[in-house]
UniProtKB/TrEMBL annotation:
Gene: ylbJ
Record has Transmembrane as a keyword: yes
Keywords: Membrane, Transmembrane, Transmembrane helix
A Pfam entry, by short name: Gate
InterPro entries: Gate_dom (IPR011642), Spore_IM_YlbJ (IPR014226)
Protein name: Sporulation integral membrane protein YlbJ
TM spans (from-to): 6-26, 38-66, 78-99, 120-141, 147-168, 204-230, 284-310, 322-342, 368-390
Domain Nucleoside transporter/FeoB GTPase Gate: 42-139, 217-311
Taxonomic lineage of the native organism: Bacteria, Bacillati, Bacillota, Bacilli, Bacillales
Domain of life: Bacteria
Length: 396
């Protein structure tokens, strides 16, 4: 009976989507173009290098090397093997859903147990600085100082999520015993891992490119799909209806009712929600809280991407979803605490230690984001062309 109910829900949802696409062709087209623009100009060119490099690092045994070195840190802090350090750093640098992709990859390589993978994916799927500072803070708010606050909040709260999730299935016996710092052992592990991979250098490079682009194509599909879905919910007034319930929740925290619809948009798709929050007339603190919660929750669009990646393994999605709720709670609290000491102090003086170190990084990220906006589509098109050549070569 339960499966029949699922069948009815899935079929009804598909029919509803198809009907709405026919009923609102112009709105759907604009939403699709908006999603495609974000993916082709920013997401694809910014994530592709990280995905390819990560595949090469795994193939050449560098991840095994990192795993041995990070074991004394990652095991006590997060109750995961040292290879989790690779996923954590790469996830922060490249952004979601990189953490899920790298975790799934290491699980397939049997470098993580099922429980360790579920712990790891819960706190390594973060937004990257390029998106937080470049797209959100500079692109939407036109305020790079807010980006520093959002970035500190996002990564600090994610760290606390990792600390909390270390207790997930805590009684389960660990496969790995705690290892001591040893560079010689790390090099030995690197060498054995490289020898174990029998692929030639050309094969490794080709596989790295094709696997990375295939993942990015899936990501692009989800971004466009949820951009369209969000627009449809607005057109049929469902979004406005749901936002009525959100208004009640926001009133408990004395947040204006006008923020309900932007927050709902952010629950579905981060970019749209953050842009709408920035367009409201509320105070900067209220906007910072909501954007931090949206970034922490990841949005259903990113969560669907993560679920798609994890579906290729035995990693459960539920711990990741619970961690997003926890991340949102921590982010809302931390951004409120840091608002005055970080954001207000940066506004009043540029002589503080934070401003002195952060300003060059912010300028660099702004230039990088502008470069992606100008050259991103060319990079995407070139990569897809190379992907087709490799694919045709493999088939022949």
């Amino acid at each position: 009976m339960k499966q029949k109910l699922y069948s009815i829900i899935y079929a009804s949802s598909s029919v509803f989507m198809a009907t709405m696409i026919i009923a609102f062709p112009q709105e759907v087209l604009k939403a699709s173009q908006r999603g495609l623009d974000v993916w082709a100009n920013v997401v694809f060119p910014s994530l592709l290098p990280f995905f390819i490099i990560a595949e090469l690092l795994i193939a050449f045994g560098v991840v095994h090397f990192i795993g041995v070195l990070f074991e004394p840190v990652m095991r006590p802090l997060f109750n995961v093997p040292g290879v989790g350090g690779f996923v954590w750093t790469m996830g922060m640098a490249s952004g979601y859903p990189s953490g899920a992709k790298f975790t799934a990859r290491l699980r397939q390589e049997n470098q993580l147990s099922k429980t360790e993978a579920e712990r790891l994916v819960s706190f390594t799927n973060a937004s990257n600085p390029l998106f937080i500072i470049g797209a959100v803070s500079i692109g939407f708010f036109h305020d790079h100082q807010l980006g520093i606050l959002l970035a500190i909040t996002h990564y600090t709260s994610n760290f606390f999520v990792g600390i909390c999730m270390r207790f997930y299935k805590y009684r389960e016996q660990n496969r790995y015993s705690l290892q001591h710092f040893s560079i010689s052992k790390a090099f030995t592990q690197l060498h054995h891992a490289r020898i174990k991979d029998k692929r030639t250098l050309g094969k490794v490079l080709g596989d790295s490119v094709t696997h990375s682009i295939q993942t990015l194509l899936i990501i692009g599909g989800f971004i466009i799909l949820f951009s369209v879905l969000t627009e449809i919910l607005r057109e049929v007034q469902i979004a406005q209806f749901i936002s009525g319930g959100i208004i009640i929740i926001l009133s408990w925290f004395q947040i204006p009712a006008e923020m309900a619809l932007p927050l709902l948009s952010g629950i579905f798709e981060i970019t749209i929600g953050a842009n709408e929050v920035a367009s409201t007339d509320s105070s900067i603190l209220i906007k910072a809280i909501l954007v931090s919660v949206i970034l922490a929750f990841n949005g259903f669009s990113v969560q669907a991407q993560v679920a798609s990646i994890l579906a290729e393994t035995d990693i459960q999605f539920t711990p990741y979803f619970f961690a997003r709720l926890l991340h949102g709670l921590f982010a809302g609290i931390i951004v409120t605490i840091l608002y005055v000491p970080v954001y207000k102090n940066l506004q009043t003086t540029n002589e503080t230690v934070i401003a002195a170190f952060a300003q060059p990084s912010v300028d660099h990220i702004q230039q990088l984001y502008l470069m992606f906006e100008q050259m991103g589509f060319i990079i995407t098109l070139s990569a897809l062309f190379i992907y087709l050549i490799i694919l045709m070569k493999h088939k022949n």
